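Customer ticket, subject: "Can you confirm the structure for Fluoride-specific ion channel FluC?"

Message body: Hello, I'm evaluating your service for our small team and ran a test protein. I'd like someone to confirm that this is what the system normally returns, since I don't have a reference to compare against.
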Amino acid sequence: MTPLVFLGVAVGGGVGAALRFVLDAVVRERVASAYPLGTLLINVTGSLLLGLVSGLAARHALGAPWALVLGTGLCGGYTTFSTASLETVRLAADGRRGAALLNGLGTLVASVLAAAAGLWLATL
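Agent reply: Thanks for trying us out. I re-ran your input and got the following:
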C-alpha cells in the first residue's frame, strides 16, 4: 500500500465517521423513537455501498486503491457494528427484549441482504 492510499483510507474513514454522526443526528431529530433507527439505516446503507464497491472492484470497474479508500476507509468509518451491538444490549437491559431481538437479528439480516444487493447492482 502506498502512502497516498494509506492517507486516502484514513481520510475516507474520517469522512465516513462524520457522515455517520450527521445522519444519526438527523434521524434522531426527525424520528422520535427509542429504537435505534439511525444506526440501522447507517449499517444497511453502508453494507449496500460496500457490496457495490466490492462488486465493482471484483469486475475491475473500480481500481484497487479506490476500493480500499471507499470500502475500507469510507464504509469502515461509516458503518458501526459496535454501536449496533451496544444498542441491542441496552434495549435488552431496559426490558425491551423483543426490540433487542429485532435490532440484533434485523440489523444482521438487513445488512447482509443490502450487501448482496450491492454486489448484484455491480453486475448490471
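A couple of notes from the result: The CA atoms of residues 48 and 111 lie 7 Å apart. Residues 3-122 form one domain. Feel free to reply with more questions.
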